[in-house]
Specification:
Elements lengths: L1 H28 L6 E9 L9 H10 L5 E3 L7 E2 L4 E11 L1 E10 L1 E2 L3 E5 L2 E6 L3 E2 L10 E8 L2 E11 L5 E8 L4 E4 L2 H6 L2 E2 L1 H31 L1
Antiparallel strand pairs: 1-2, 1-4, 3-12, 4-11, 5-10, 5-12, 5-14, 6-9, 7-8, 7-11, 12-13
Helix pairs in contact: 1-4
Amino acid sequence: MKRVSESLSNLLMHITRMLVLWLSIAWLTSLPANAGLITYQTQDYNGARLFTDLRDEWFALVGAGAVVTDRDIDEFNQVYSGNRTFNRLVLDVDMEGYGEWTLDIGLDAGLGVQAYFNDQSIYKDTSDVWWNYNWNHGDMVNLNNLVMPTGEHRIELYWIEMCCNGFNSIRLTDELNNTVAFLSAEAMARAQISEPDTIAVLAFALILGASMRSKRIFRKGEKDAKK
């Protein structure tokens, strides 16, 4: 009977190890990859407004042959757009878990700014916007508590600067983990709750349960052997 108990215990431990291995592989393959892509574009601007909506204005000018310059941005901090420029910043986000973000946006935008979230205009200011390098300034653009469930999302920001080319910065706050970082692809990748957390808990529960079960079987075998 003791040998049978030991065999059952070993079998349970073997099955548990296989499950843990499978869960570990699942955990590694489900880790968030590059969850976000930042696209920053500019074009020259002469100040003649065609539309009140800045996104419509941007694409109307592109359709009319405006030259668009793509700019490489690793981190959106102290970025100079230049004088007489029309700017477009796009965040394409593929969330592998739930997230809730706040974007604090400091701009030098002499002819205004407009923001879109998933094709919906959520912020618009047509005045002379200047944050004066102060995160508490009244001209800050604050996109608060953007709900980001699993799936694809797009945040678009359009602004026009004529003079005098102050730098621009954006901070990303992960509301769920209460962390703040300058906007970057890395910061966007961290700002979510992903499935690996659930998998890790499940793996731990399986190990604990199998361990307790094998101990009970082994002890029962010892008792039966003594009878």
